[in-house]
Specification:
With about 110 residues, the chain is an all-alpha fold. It has one domain (about 5-105). It is about 55% helix and about 0% strand. The chain has helices at about 5-15, 25-30, 35-45, 55-70, 75-85, 100-105. The longest helix is centred in the middle third of the chain and has 12 residues, at about 35-45. The protein is globular and about 40 Å long.
Length: about 110
Amino acid sequence: MVAAGWLAATAAGAAAGGIAGGIVGALTQAGVSDEDAQVYAEGVRRGGTLVTARVNDSDATRLEALLDRSSLRTSDVRRSYDKSGWKGFDPNAKPYSADEVRQYRNTWQ
């Protein structure tokens, strides 16, 4: 995972402070619900990409519309994970292999 800017700084602070889950802790500290943070972290573990940005309120609607063109709905991803028996992000689970990432991405095309 490559992170930069405010999320990387928050994640580093979360790790230094002993907050469980690294990215989950960083996201929840930034105001994301724990439920959504779990889904985002699992998506990254499976080879997905998480894009975060702090923007001016005046730009938020326009930028959200741009991102929505090719993003997945958190509720759809969570539903898919739940159907497979997923219970939450496990920071000790191994990342997906390249083949598993390709297979996972193909399920969303």
